[in-house]
Amino acid sequence: MSYLMRKCVVNLKNVNRWSSVCVVMRNERQRSQSACILKREITNATISHRTFHTSSILNKSVAFKLSDIGEGIREVVIKEWFVKVGDKVQQFDNICEVQSDKAAVTITSRYDGVVKRLYHEVDQTALVGQPLVDIEVEDGEDEGSSSSSDEEQAQVSTKQAADEKAQKVKVLTTPSVRRIAAQFNVDLSTVKPTGKNGRILKEDMLAHLNIDSDASNIVPDATTVKAVEIPVTKAQAKVEVLLEDRVVPVSGFTKAMVKSMTEAMKIPHFGYSEEYDVTKLVEARDLLKTIALERGVKFSYMPIIIKATSLGLTQLPILNSSLDSNCEHIIYKANHNIGVAMDTPNGLVVPVIKNVQNKTILEIASELNSLQEKGTKGQLGLAEISGGTFTLSNIGIIGGTYTKPVILPPQVAIGALGKIQVLPRFDSESNIRKAHILTISFSADHRVIDGVTMARFSNYLKNYLENPTTLLLDL
């Protein structure tokens, strides 16, 4: 009997345990069903959210920013716009021409689209990294909506056409033509162009004004302040009295000169001057000039002087070097990149003839003519005015004999040529003769160059220029 009672108690415990297990399983099943329902609701909400954002934009406006054009340039001046609001542009189309403190650069488009906004006017300053124009980029994937987009674009262009009158029409031309137009108050859009791609040439402007090329050089500068003429006597010139002072911002090549000359004043300069009797050089140049013209090259004294300078640098490579920023190392330059200072309408520039040691005198003359033409038109690029290792300044074409040139950092020396004068000199037999005398002045960085080295270099150059036939021995 007791055995049966114990077995019944055990069976009752087993029944209670299985009841608890069933309750737990039922609760777990309910939780699983609730979790599935919640997961389904979240999934549906996510799908509907993604579906809401699947519509695409046909056109979007992109801010075309001024990229870094190198040489540490942080700002430029807008010189000319080649586009206006509403114009369609493609990749590599010219957008505008900008003038930095070192060179003129043409900015090209990186997008295909429609110009929607110009951020700057001509002669305003633009910063690197800031927008130049807004371009509406077209999306070519949705062809069905392109026609409606074009219609909307046409409506916008029509609306903006009324505002284009307030904007100055930009035309293709050169800075010299713009100068003449500003002096005569001529609207460039009224001048009939004959150049390539509708470019206005100087001849077009002169024909529009009915004047010749000589008269265009004596036009009064319209940028000066209006003056009052006070007649003194009939035999004397008129005196002009300015009504007020003018304040002009420092920009372009003037700003570059301010920076470079400020750095140059940190260099301890010393000077060295000498006279060269270049009578034989004058005779040789007269002969070579005729031969060069037959080959289509304008020939002056400078190509010979540049080549002779390069031969002198070969003898004394310390003059073709630079000092590092910490003044701990001297860097000897392998190539003779000789800069030639030029006076241009945009100010003083120093274009560089590269690898002079590997070029003939005629090749130097041809490249020098090309750089002079580009400098006059304001078309020198950064590559053409950078990388110089030695500089020559020819002040003689303006006037003057001796001077004290300022070194262009990071170079260590510079030479300045005076004008060639016909002066009396004694020959070896003490007879007076007519001689062509060239004066030349050097400045050198006294941290690197001493007086003896500069004198030796001058003697090398003097020998080459006084006896130009000796150039043949070292070419």
UniProtKB/TrEMBL annotation:
Superkingdom of origin: Eukaryota
Keyword Transit peptide assigned: yes
Composition bias type Acidic residues, residue spans: 139-153
Major localization class: mitochondrion
Domain named Lipoyl-binding: residues: 61-136
UniProt-annotated stretches for the region Disordered: 139-167
Domain Peripheral subunit-binding (PSBD): 172-209
Alphabetic keyword roster: Acyltransferase, Lipoyl, Mitochondrion, Transferase, Transit peptide
Localization in the cell: Mitochondrion matrix
Similarity annotation: Belongs to the 2-oxoacid dehydrogenase family.
SUPFAM superfamilies: CoA-dependent acyltransferases, Peripheral subunit-binding domain of 2-oxo acid dehydrogenase complex, Single hybrid motif
GO molecular function: acetyltransferase activity; lipoic acid binding
The protein, known as: Dihydrolipoamide acetyltransferase component of pyruvate dehydrogenase complex
Enzymatic class: transferase
Cofactor(s) required for function per UniProt: (R)-lipoate
PANTHER family according to UniProt: DIHYDROLIPOAMIDE ACETYLTRANSFERASE COMPONENT OF PYRUVATE DEHYDROGENASE COMPLEX, LIPOAMIDE ACYLTRANSFERASE COMPONENT OF BRANCHED-CHAIN ALPHA-KETO ACID DEHYDROGENASE COMPLEX, MITOCHONDRIAL
One GO CC term, this protein: mitochondrial matrix
Entry EC number(s): 2.3.1.-
InterPro entries from the UniProt entry: 2-oxoA_DH_lipoyl-BS, 2-oxoacid_DH_actylTfrase, 2-oxoacid_DH_E2_comp, Biotin_lipoyl, CAT-like_dom_sf, E3-bd_dom_sf, PSBD, Single_hybrid_motif
Residue ranges of the TM segments: none
